[in-house]
Amino acid sequence: MKIRLNGKPKEFPDTLVLTSLVEQFCKDKNPVIAELNGKIIKLEQWEETSIKEGAVVELVSFVGGG
Amino acid sequence: MKDSPLTIAGKTFTSRFMLGTGKFKNKSDVEKSIGASGAEIVTVALRRIDVERHEENILQYIPEGITLLTNTSGARNSQEAVRIARLARESGCGNWVKIEVINDSKYLLPDNNETVKATEILSAEGFIVLPYMFPDLYAARALVEAGAAAVMPLGSLIGSNQGLKAKEFIRILIDEIDEVPIIVDAGIGAPSQSAEAMEMGADACLVNTAVANAEDPAGLAEAFSLAIRSGRLAYLSKIPAAQEAAEPSSPLTNFLYEHDLSS
User: How far apart are CA B95 and CA B92, in angstroms?
Assistant: First the structure.
């Protein structure tokens, strides 16, 4: 399955839920916010949100800023 | 001297110094500088997570109880700013947002028109909106009308340390905008410049680059804190106007001379 994750192409053997995708790429507890195909997915919905072929996923978090 | 607290959207703050967390070489200096500054409002930004490498979590360096103000840096128009603000709110870290819409990569000047549009949309959605803006009176009025909780005019170009280049225009905002606090943001490079802003009646100052780039960030944060407090006290005490002629500070008569010097 091919998706775009934060602007980069990524390939996975199977469909997966958003929770496992976040766990793979975000190691710390910094709040992570997820957007799937342009729509914000609430944390409580991650477990039931499947990432399918062609999905565009954005994972963002906080950094220093002025 | 007793000062009234800074009130933004009904929330009160003792400190009138807001600190940015960008550009610090060592993240531990963020925590030390926040402590030394006494800041109660701290800005952060949102970014795509770099999925190739581990990045440090900025929030772990920000003490509990601090009001987080997420900026919309990276937004080039109102729609992008709105999107970033909505993402930030989803984090559960509050709904305070500093609107920053910039589409000029050389001077990084804020786009007032797009900022007004974003302010209108986000205020209506319940965000506490603090827009960063070019100090233009009409734009400031439009921002207030759009629901801004404060107005944040630039002192000079972002990160330039040039100080209050826009002083006379900020003065007009201070004079004309009574509904919300005026917070001078961007370009303040030295404590004396922040004192100057406060002396003329700004309600608060936001500083980032100068502190982050100092050899001792926490030391400079403390210096800014004192200067902002000093400028505020001076403003409240009503500084006498400058005069052309000299005026003696001590009596000139009835000591060694028969006659008054002025006669």
Answer: 8
- Model confidence at A28, pLDDT cuts 50, 70, 90, reads low
For chain B, give the mean pLDDT: 93
Question: What pLDDT, on the 0 to 100 scale, is given for residue B261?
Answer: 58
pLDDT at B175 exceeding the cut of 70? yes
Q: Which of B2, B23, B25, B98 is catalytic?
A: B98
Annotated active-site residue B98? The verdict is yes
As for how many domains chain A has, the answer is 1
The answer, for B249 touching chain A at a CB cutoff of 8 Å, is no
Give the closest of A7, A35, A43 to B87, CB-based: A35
Q: Do the beta carbons of residue B101 and residue B115 sit within 8 Å?
A: yes
Higher per-residue pLDDT: B238 or B93? B238
Q: Residue A22 belongs to a domain with what CATH number?
A: 3.10.20.30
Domain region containing A31: 2-55
Which residue is closest to B52 within chain A, CA to CA? A25
**What are the tens digits of pLDDT across the range B111-127?**
999 999 999 999 999 99
Rounded to two decimals, the ipTM of the complex is 0.85
Which 3-state string (H, E, C) describes chain A?
CEEEECCEEEECCCCEEHHHHHHHHCCCCCCCEEEECCEEECHHHHHHCEECCCCEEEEEEEEECC
Interatomic CA distance for residues B167 and A30, integer angstroms? 39
Superfamily the domain B6-237 falls into: Aldolase class I (3.20.20.70)
pLDDT on residue B36: 97
The domains of chain B are located at 6-237
